[in-house]
Design goal:
Blueprint: E1 2-11, E2 19-29, E3 34-39, H1 45-53, E4 60-65, E5 68-69, H2 75-78, E6 82-85, H3 99-107, H4 121-132, H5 151-163, E7 169-173, H6 181-198, E8 201-205, H7 209-214, E9 218-223, E10 226-232, H8 233-237, H9 241-252, H10 259-263
Parallel strand pairs: 3-8, 3-9, 6-7, 7-8
Antiparallel strand pairs: 1-2, 1-4, 4-5, 9-10
Helix pairs in contact: 3-5, 5-6
């Protein structure tokens, strides 16, 4: 469903700050795969998701979704079939707009907009049904400005907005890193629910090894812009944090040195 073929991305080329963020990366995802992506800081995890989302064009290589070459497709056009949740809960929503207005924008993603009322009574009933799935009482607060919500509520809303149109690919970029442990667990639970029930294909970047092991059917680890581990099936379900650290050391030739990942 997703094919990344020999993708390279270099930031600040030809300067003292030159950084090879993606180094000839190739990866294929089958329809329905839920892949967790782990690695130390600067390994290329978020850069990989940004490349797929179209936040920038890669320097070389190709990206395909459903056999369609999207390598040079602008980010706003990819948004028609890619849903995304960012690390910052403030990023995925419009703070000064009501909850129902944010949901309306999500429902209209990829469609032509015109000068007509965007929200009707039937829409509100549908929004209430969707919001009730979150278990946060937001279904009774449709006209509350999103900026008044807590970070956890806002991130849960962002997740709902990302999956409303059943995207071909869902990208979760450390989407629980800014949340307290209890709220993070709730958002991860909702992520599993939406991905499973919708049969979505998803990639989740996380700094937490336990979460990377516990969620999804496949785990990849990155280091210095390359994929150095790719584990799935029973091999993944049998993983422990200690095993993962040992596998990293063997594949990279050095110790895993990211305290937040080890202690998360």
């Amino acid at each position: 469903m997703l094919k990344i073929e020999n993708v390279t991305k270099i930031f600040n080329p030809g300067t003292v700050n030159e950084k090879t963020a993606l180094d000839n990366v190739s990866l294929e995802l089958d329809d329905g795969d839920f892949v967790t992506v782990i690695g130390s800081n600067g390994a290329g995890k978020s850069t990989l998701l940004n490349a797929v989302a179209g936040a920038f064009f890669v320097d070389s290589g190709y990206i395909y979704i459903d056999d369609k070459d999207i390598t040079r497709l602008p980010e706003y056009k990819r948004a028609e079939f890619i849903g995304r949740v960012f690390q910052d809960p403030m990023t995925g929503t419009a703070a000064d707009m009501w909850i129902e207005e944010n949901l309306s924008l999500a429902m209209l993603r990829g469609q032509r907009r015109g000068l007509r009322w965007a929200i009707h009574k039937s829409d509100r009933e549908l929004y209430r049904i969707h919001l009730a799935q979150l278990g946060l009482g937001l279904e009774d607060r449709l006209t509350t400005k999103v900026g008044l919500l807590s970070g956890g509520q806002r991130q849960a809303l962002t997740l709902l907005m990302a999956v409303l149109k059943q995207p071909r690919l869902l990208l979760l970029d450390e989407h629980t890193a800014a949340l307290d442990p209890k709220t993070a667990a709730k958002v991860l639970e909702l992520s599993d629910k939406f991905i499973s029930e919708g049969g979505l294909t998803a990639m989740m970047v996380t700094h937490n090894m336990k979460d990377a092991i516990a969620h999804g059917n496949r785990l990849i680890m990155m280091n210095e812009g390359k994929i150095i581990l790719d584990v799935s099936g029973k091999d993944k379900s049998d993983l422990t944090v200690d095993m993962l650290i040992e596998m990293f050391a063997k594949a990279s030739g050095r110790e895993f040195a990211n305290d937040s990942a080890l202690l998360g």
